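Re: [ENG-882] Designed sequences occasionally contain unexpected residues at chain ends

Forwarding the minimal case from QA. Structure tokens:
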């Protein structure tokens, strides 16, 4: 996990990773994002500079369901979500198509450099 987070950091960082169950994942998403369901990864970013400071919270049951549904190896899906969350911790967003294109391109670069598959290749075909 450290390798995946470090690969996505563009500057020094202090990133904590927590893996939680469905109930805690749902409560955090509800309390902080107003969405009453568990989600795969939540990023709590506290500082972008000079050091990235963030907490990444992954909901294990959601990550496992998504990996099965997408027929992905579980570690590869965790890698993608940690890279995704770490990019959010540095200010990357995907609120519109332009932002999403930049963020997805960066995610793909990082994951390919780690020897993992491009998570967006199916969507681009």
């Amino acid at each position: 996990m450290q390798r995946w987070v470090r690969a996505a950091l563009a500057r020094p960082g202090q990133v904590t990773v927590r893996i939680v169950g469905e109930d805690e994942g749902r409560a955090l998403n509800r309390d902080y994002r107003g969405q009453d369901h568990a989600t795969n990864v939540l990023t709590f970013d506290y500082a972008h500079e000079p050091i990235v400071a963030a907490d990444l919270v992954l909901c294990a049951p959601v990550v496992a369901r998504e990996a099965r549904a997408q027929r992905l190896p579980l570690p590869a899906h965790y890698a993608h979500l940690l890279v995704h969350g770490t990019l959010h911790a540095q200010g990357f967003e995907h609120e519109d198509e332009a932002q999403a294109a930049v963020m997805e391109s960066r995610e793909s670069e990082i994951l390919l450099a780690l020897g993992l598959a491009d998570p967006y290749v199916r969507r681009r075909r």
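QA comment: On inspection the terminal residues look reasonable. Residues 2-119 form a domain with the Collagenase (Catalytic Domain) fold (CATH 3.40.390.30). Proposing we downgrade this to a documentation issue.
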